[in-house]
Amino acid sequence: MGLSNERSEGSALAGRSNTELSGDEPWITTKLDAFVNWGRKNSLWPMPFGTACCAIEFMATAASKYDLARFGMERQAFTPRQADLLICAGRVPFKLAPVLRRIWQQMPQPKWCISMGACASTGGMFDNYAVVQGIDSIIPVDVYVPGCPPRPEGLMYGILMLQKKVENERSSDRSLRHEMEPDPKSQLYIPPSVIDEVSEPFGNSIHQTRSGL
Amino acid sequence: MNNGFTPVVAGRASGGDAAAPATPTSIAHRGGAMNPSADAIRQRFAGVLHRADVVWGETTVIVDRTRVHDVIQWLHDDPSQLYDYLSDVTAVEFRDLEQAVEVVWHLRSLPFRRFLRVKVLLEKGAPLEVPSVWDIYKGADWLERECYDMFGIRFAGHPDLRRLLMWEQYKEGFPLRKDFPLRGRFSRSEQLRQALAANPEARYSKDELSIADAFEDLPADMRQRLGTGERTGE
Lengths: 213, 234
Prior knowledge:
The structure holds two protein chains of two kinds.
Chain A: E1 2-4, H1 10-13, E2 27-29, H2 32-41, E3 46-50, H3 53-62, E4 85-89, H4 97-106, E5 112-116, H5 117-122, E6 143-145, H6 152-167, H7 192-198
Parallel strand pairs in A: 3-4, 4-5, 5-6
Antiparallel strand pairs in A: 1-2
Helix pairs in contact in A: 2-6, 3-6
Chain B: H1 12-15, H2 36-44, E1 49-55, E2 58-63, H3 68-77, E3 85-92, E4 101-109, E5 114-122, E6 129-131, H4 140-151, E7 154-156, H5 188-196, H6 206-209, H7 211-214, H8 220-227
Parallel strand pairs in B: 2-5, 6-7
Antiparallel strand pairs in B: 1-2, 3-4, 4-5
């Protein structure tokens, strides 16, 4: 990115008579990607999908002390249609899975997703019959923020990581803005065998068999 | 402004202007003063009360399955009892398969400041069915639905007995039963597939929101606004 605001002498401008510029206006040259990404990363509009205690930390992050507005998130979008960034804060039960999927599909491109906290990322301590074991089996996730719940600094670090990711996107990469379609048969993004493999029981706590009792 | 509403003063029926009771301390595990309602049930319903215990200062009566509705109706209506608040309906299953499944009603009498726990034992092999108390306490609606959802206990006479917490097409069984594995019966991918196949907008029916039922009870101006098709909150 080049930036020039040097005031040229009249004689130096004489050789560039084809320009309309008087020579007083500052001007820049840059790559379109860099310019667009700079705008996008500094005006991410987050949509909070808060279901549990992580949402309390998200509120603290957005409130005056930590002040998410410093990073261009002045406006929280409470409708998915005007949001760029879905922040899923909290555990997602199976009953909510189609709702989260629908909200993600309602968001227009470009869009990103942060999975905030252990429960949203992996199911956390809720390895039971009711809770989705990681929202990345429902929607694509860009940044995972660990913690139970993460402190506001942790969420802000995740957001800054996402901003770096946005900064380095290339418009020539068609896969970025491609709307991922789930497998029509299983309605999943990840093959069912992979989901079963990573969610197999481990450890030696009780109730780890499917037989019950 | 007198709108016909008489506030309930807790304990008024038992002691007049008695001061509010202090929180009791050092309660014995077993024994102690029994709720007088237990004896009243014993006298009013012969042979219906199987057992009465006092545990941690709270009285539990175990009554016959066939008469539990009558007992609760009487506890609710009788001027000497006035159990006007149903705080919970739930069930207990034990790991010992020979032990009976218990269905529990938590009743509270605000006028007498009494608490009574009513239990019914569903012996092994008996159908998991008890009478609904929805006709006595309208608040029993969702409590009984939750109990049905989690334990599979049917409440005969409930107007709309379906799942409350799990979605209606849930096929894996009743999660709080002892034979239910913690992670559910299906694989994770199958659970996800079934959950995602649900239409999120088909979950609430217009009837469930019950604006149609409550229409006549609304204030006149609101009825007029709704009648003209005006919609609020959008």
